[in-house]
Amino acid sequence: MKDELTGAIKYDGFKKAGILSEIKAKVVLRTRKKVFRLFMEYINPCAKDDILDAGVAPVKGIAGVKTVTNNFFEAFYPYTDHITATSIEDASNLEGVFKGLSFVKTEPYHTPFSDKQFDAVFCNAVVEHTGSREQQKAFIREYCRVGKKFFFTTPNRWFPIEVHSALPLVHWMPPRYFRKVLRILGKEALADESILNLLTEKEFKALFPKNVRLRIIRIRTAGFVSNLIICGEWKDNE
Questions:
Q1: What is the pLDDT of residues 87-132, one digit of tens each?
Q2: CATH assignment of 3-237, among 3.40.50.1240, 3.10.50.40, 3.30.470.30, 3.40.50.150
Q3: CA gap 103, 83 in Å, rounded
Q4: What count of Cα atoms within 13 Å lies in the side-chain half-sphere of residue 35?
Q5: The dihedral sign for the CA sequence 124, 55, 170, 163
Q6: In 3-state terms, what secondary structure has residue 238?
Q7: pTM for this predicted structure
Q8: 149: Cβ–Cβ under 8 A, 6 or more apart, which residues?
Q9: Exposed (0-12), middle (13-18) or buried (19+): which is 166, by Cβ within 10 Å?
Q10: The pLDDT of residue 181
């Protein structure tokens, strides 16, 4: 993957601090608090469960933006000594930020973990940054493999505002035209499929293995479905 991929994950599309980036950060944090509550409700982890957080960021946030949205799961989860965090970047500094947390640097589509090693896998808004549909499928299936339960989120392509670029409606165009608009507007990094490849609900669901039981949760913002969550478990867990 290209280096810009990590920036897209890490910075939520922000290039510099300002009033708009602060407003966006507050909206993002509100949604992420809702995501965390839904994880606790549907996964229902106990204190001793081992949790894998796939795709953490090595930095706290954007300079000049007061509202911090990165690594919110670790900030909210009460049992950080049972979290293993992964990233394609070196985020080992998080071990000094969150008590007891362990960090493992991984390849984009491969991990060193055994089948169902973790009681649950949490992955927020990473899959849209992992490349083509086949690459996204490889990413999802690898992290499903290592968890007994799993909880993935992604922005909904059909939400009227594209959350990374903050542009309205243009992401509803065929991808090649959307990317052309991004380049014209100086957002070249986001125009690369390996950095941003948005998903509809149908496309998101198709990434998962067939022998899993899935639940789709839709988060609404201003009446529109802004975020998609798929959580579930392997059918042979019964």
A1: 999 999 999 999 999 999 999 899 999 999 999 999 999 999 999 9
A2: 3.40.50.150
A3: 9
A4: 27
A5: positive
A6: coil
A7: 0.90
A8: 43, 119, 120, 121, 231, 232, 233, 237
A9: middle
A10: 97
The two beta strands, 224-234 and 147-155, are antiparallel
Contact assessment for residue 234 and residue 147, using Cβ atoms and an 8 Å cutoff: no
Amino acid 7: pLDDT: 41
Q: Where are the domains of the chain?
A: 3-237
pLDDT tens digit sequence for 185-228: 988 889 999 999 999 999 999 999 999 999 999 999 999 999 99
Euclidean distance between CA atoms 194 and 53, whole angstroms = 21
Ranges assigned E (strand) in the chain: 51-54, 83-87, 102-105, 118-124, 147-155, 161-162, 167-168, 212-221, 224-234
The pLDDT value given to residue 144: 98
Cα of 155 vs its chain's centroid, Å: 9
Give the span between the Cα atoms of 234 and 238, in whole angstroms: 8
**In angstroms, rounded to a whole number, what is the distance separating the alpha carbons of residues 209 and 217?**
18
Where residue 166 falls among pLDDT bands split at 50, 70, 90?
Answer: confident
Residue 103 in tokens: 């960090």
Distance CA 3, CA 105 (A): 15
Helix (H) and strand (E) counts in the chain: 6, 9
